[in-house]
Every structure is written in structure tokens, then in C-alpha cells.
Amino acid sequence: MVLDVFSTLPFVERGSSFWTEFSGGMTTFFAMCYIMVLNGVIIGGPYNTGIPTTGVFFSTALASGIFTTMMGLFVNVPVALAPGMGLNGCVTVCYHPAFCIF
Fold first, then answer.
1. Are the C-beta atoms of 50 and 95 separated by less than 8 Å?
2. Angle, alpha carbons 31-3-5 (nearest 5°)
3. What is the pTM of this model?
4. pLDDT per residue over 9-63, tens digit each?
5. 51 vs 37: CA distance, rounded Å
6. Contact 80, 32 (CB under 8 A)
7. Whole-angstrom distance, CA of residue 70 vs CA of residue 48
8. Local structure of 88: helix, strand or coil
9. Residues 50, 56, 58, 62: is their CA dihedral positive or negative?
């Protein structure tokens, strides 16, 4: 009876299974958690940029949540969006007084 509920979901029509979707979702979740923590460490951490680590963590989580939800609802594509990790170094170097070129 419980399996009949899963047979009406869209991923079954695409030839996927519940466990495939679940493992993909958990992998994405842990990757996003890693990005949120690492953003705070890079931007707010060792270079003393003056930006609070908790603020960076919260803003990364908020932006990731909003844009991932928008991708799911409006575009109907299972893609998670988060700030790019390569840009963190550029932002950190530009805000650090010893490295700032402006």
C-alpha cells in the first residue's frame, strides 16, 4: 500500500526510484552544508576581513535556500544553487587591507 503512493510521483515516471532521489538529495544537502561552513571560514575567518562569520553563514544559507527553492518551483529543475567557492578568495583578498589593490 505504501509503495502505491510512490508510484504516482514524477521521479517514477522518469525511471528513477525513491532511494536514488533520496541519496542524491542527501549528497546535495551535505555539499551545501560544506559550502555554507567554508564560506564563513574563508571570508570571515583567518584574513580578519571584519565580516562576521555567522553573518556570512546565514547569508549563504538564505541565498542558497531562496534560489534553490525558486529553481524547483518555477523552473522545475532539480538543481541546487549556492555561491561559488572560487569567488570567495577574490572577495577575501579585496577586503583584506594588506592585499587590497583599490
1. yes
2. 85
3. 0.66
4. 676 777 777 788 788 888 888 888 888 888 877 777 666 667 788 888 888 889 8
5. 14
6. yes
7. 33
8. helix
9. positive
